[in-house]
Design brief:
single chain; mainly alpha; about 190 residues
Length: about 190
């Protein structure tokens, strides 16, 4: 992973931060935890499962790239990018998990990083153009109601919160790496 291999810990927001700042802090902190847990591994490390599950860190990278793209549709209303633009991604829910084993570490890291950057940019533009109260531009509940972007950001964060726990267990099994946040650099920043 590029700069995400050993990302700096998230800066804590002000104790009086507003809703948007706190939501973005929580999402970015979970992204950084995930990047740290997946970073710097070779193909063997990314493809190692922890029985009885077949889940791998490589599969999680590709899955969360897909999730980022899925929620980006709600921020922009535009067609998705990779890996959600692959026909198999729309017809086979297990495709990302299976196909990740054939992708190189560089491809998986780049795919996830590109999806995160796409999502960050789309969310920033959406927040600047209507904030959290605006309706999602794609997703609908079963009754046809569009959730607001606040709900979309919470759902995206929840996806990371769930999978950071998986990544924590998988990474510990690969090489013993444990911890909640990336270590702080010697300069303390």
């Amino acid at each position: 992973m590029s700069e995400n291999h050993n990302p700096r810990p998230s800066q804590e927001p002000s104790p009086t931060a507003g809703e948007t700042e706190m939501l973005l802090f929580a999402l970015e902190r979970s992204r950084r935890q995930f990047a740290w847990k997946c970073g710097g591994l070779d193909a063997a490390g990314l493809n190692q499962a922890l029985a009885p599950s077949t889940m791998t860190l490589g599969g999680l990278l590709k899955h969360l790239a897909l999730v980022e793209e899925r929620y980006t549709i709600d921020f922009t209303g535009e067609a998705p990018g990779p890996p959600l633009d692959a026909p198999q991604a729309r017809t086979d829910p297990d495709w990302v998990w299976r196909s990740a084993a054939a992708d190189s570490p560089e491809e998986l890291y780049a795919l996830w990083e590109k999806a995160v950057e796409h999502s960050r940019g789309a969310l920033a533009a959406a927040l600047a153009d209507g904030g959290l109260d605006q309706p999602a531009k794609y997703g609908r509940w079963s009754d046809g109601t569009a959730p607001n972007l606040r709900r979309i950001v919470v759902d995206l964060h929840d996806e990371y919160a769930r999978h950071v726990g998986h990544a924590d267990l998988l990474r510990e099994a690969v090489d013993g790496l444990v911890g909640e946040d990336p270590p702080r650099p010697a300069d303390g920043r």
